[in-house]
């Protein structure tokens, strides 16, 4: 997914590769690696472009656009902004998005039921539970309730560490 595909790009060079002066050297055990300053806006723009073309391709083949569901619990203003930004990013790419905004006093079992419904809903491709959750909830348990195939953040124990 978009967020997971936004990775830091490290450029490794062979010993005799031309050395750009803006490049800093890092010496690892075997290889010489150079970290290159990244133009974040350009990389983000390229990723938007790439994903947008992918979605356009899917739709032109008669498939529906991917559907992302965002779950927000409580009224944390920062979480509100992050969720809004994520739906904006989805819109820009052509991904459908839906927000489920639950009150702060929602019980954990109600949240888990919602996650389970979304897990089995064939019209939902990705699920993102915005953190932090209210103090009475166990974030690890909730993150692991999202099935790995729909786990947009990669927070499920089976997805952590995968690229
Ligand atoms: N379900 C998730 N919940 C939360 C995540 C997450 O990845 N998934 N991360 C944070 C909140 N968050 C996104 O949701 C987030 C917070 C901060 C940043 C970030 O890059 N901050 C930069 C500034 C970036 C900028 O200026 O554009 C910084 O602090 O230096 C990104 C995402 C917790 N919840």
TrEMBL record:
Residues 38-153 form the Tetrahydrofolate dehydrogenase/cyclohydrolase catalytic domain. Signal peptide: none annotated. PANTHER family: BIFUNCTIONAL METHYLENETETRAHYDROFOLATE DEHYDROGENASE_CYCLOHYDROLASE, MITOCHONDRIAL, C-1-TETRAHYDROFOLATE SYNTHASE, CYTOPLASMIC-RELATED. It is an enzyme of class 3 (hydrolase). This is methenyltetrahydrofolate cyclohydrolase. GO terms for cellular component: cytosol. Pfam families: THF_DHG_CYH. SUPFAM superfamilies: Aminoacid dehydrogenase-like, N-terminal domain (SSF53223). It catalyses: (6R)-5,10-methenyltetrahydrofolate + H2O = (6R)-10-formyltetrahydrofolate + H(+). GO terms for biological process: tetrahydrofolate interconversion. Homodimer. One of its GO terms (molecular function) is methylenetetrahydrofolate dehydrogenase (NADP+) activity. Its EC number is 3.5.4.9. Keywords: Hydrolase, Multifunctional enzyme, One-carbon metabolism, Oxidoreductase.
